[in-house]
Amino acid sequence: MSELCRMVEVSSGLTRDGINVLKTKGVNTILSSIEMSDGIYDRADAWVTAGSNVHSLGLKWCVNLDLSTLYQGVIAEVGSDNRMFVRKAERAGFENVHKLFTVLAGADAAPDYVQIEIEMYNKLPGLSLSFEEQTRMINACINAAKAACPDSRVILATEESTDNEKAKKWYNRFQVSGGKAFDIISLKYTMNAETLYDLSCNMSDLSRRFGADILVDVSGQEDLSSADICLEDIDSAITIVPLEKGLGTVYSDRILMKANLVA
After folding, report:
1. What is the pLDDT of residues 93-108, one digit of tens each?
2. CB of 241 within 8 A of CB of 214?
3. How far apart are CA 167 and CA 161, in angstroms?
4. What angle do CA 198, 199, 205 make, to 5 degrees?
5. Is residue 107 helix, strand or coil?
6. Are the C-beta atoms of residues 94 and 136 closer than 8 Å to each other?
7. Alpha carbon distance 105, 157 (integer Å)
8. Rounded to an integer, what distance in angstroms lies between the CA atom of residue 163 and that of residue 18?
9. Contact 49/123 with Cβ under 8 angstroms?
10. How far is CA 11 from CA 36, 64, 151, 195, 198, in A?
């Protein structure tokens, strides 16, 4: 790829001036995590402003769907009845994502990317969801986002950045279980010289196996001085992913307080 995606995760309250500062540091994509809740589409003004600010500066916008609050509301209503929970959670996910993204699209603030964190479906309290049930809930969100914003690229984010067997097993099962098409795999990674080779192998295998672009998410890194590799090492690993499928890196704004991504 001619230019790596340099995405930074920021708070929802970031101002246009703050976004511009990040742009000067080499950022080309802003990631906002939206806490989904019932009726969020009626409270979307702040997100319309956020998306508009990002696009007005010539940057791309990624929306991470934080679905835990929405699903916990369903749990409070139906308890630990898996079948009822999945049915209502599917409906709640589709309705709220679709209506929110419809508002954003109508205001010319449609996200360029939509991200879903796949591990959260194993962490819902009091529930033990089958893989097929998890797939249905993920599909509902993908369908909703794509129906409202068909040009938004779908990111499925996983914590399995260095365990290729676990990662490829999940994505294989997702496809076999009727999972909807996705565009990008994001790998949450803690920078470590001992695991960089494993990360590189995982990126190469997943990109070839599933035809997906690969992001490396180091936003959990508290500071660069504690790592025994640097951002340039991550860039190098991404650029050698086969078929130019290495998309780029996700940083936190904490990292960028002390680092520039451009020379």
Report:
1. 999 999 999 999 999 9
2. yes
3. 7
4. 90
5. coil
6. no
7. 23
8. 36
9. no
10. 15, 12, 24, 29, 31
Question: Helix, strand or coil for residue 192?
Answer: coil
Q: Residue-wise over 72-81: b if at least 16 C-beta within 10 A, else e? A: eebbeeeeee
Spatial contact of 114 and 155, defined as CB atoms under 8 Å apart: yes
Type of residue numbered 209:
R
- Tokens 């290495």 belong to which residue? 246
Task: Kindly tell me if the per-residue pLDDT of 136 is higher than 50.
Answer: yes
Provide, for the chain, the percentages of residues in helix, strand and coil under a 3-state DSSP scheme, each rounded to the nearest 5.
50, 20, 30
Global pTM exceeds 0.85: yes
Q: What is the pLDDT of residues 152-196, one digit of tens each?
A: 999 999 999 999 999 999 999 999 999 999 999 999 999 999 999
Structure tokens at 56: 């007005």
In the Cβ-directed half-sphere of 186, how many Cα atoms lie within 13 Å?
26
Distance of CA 213 to the CA centre of its chain: 13
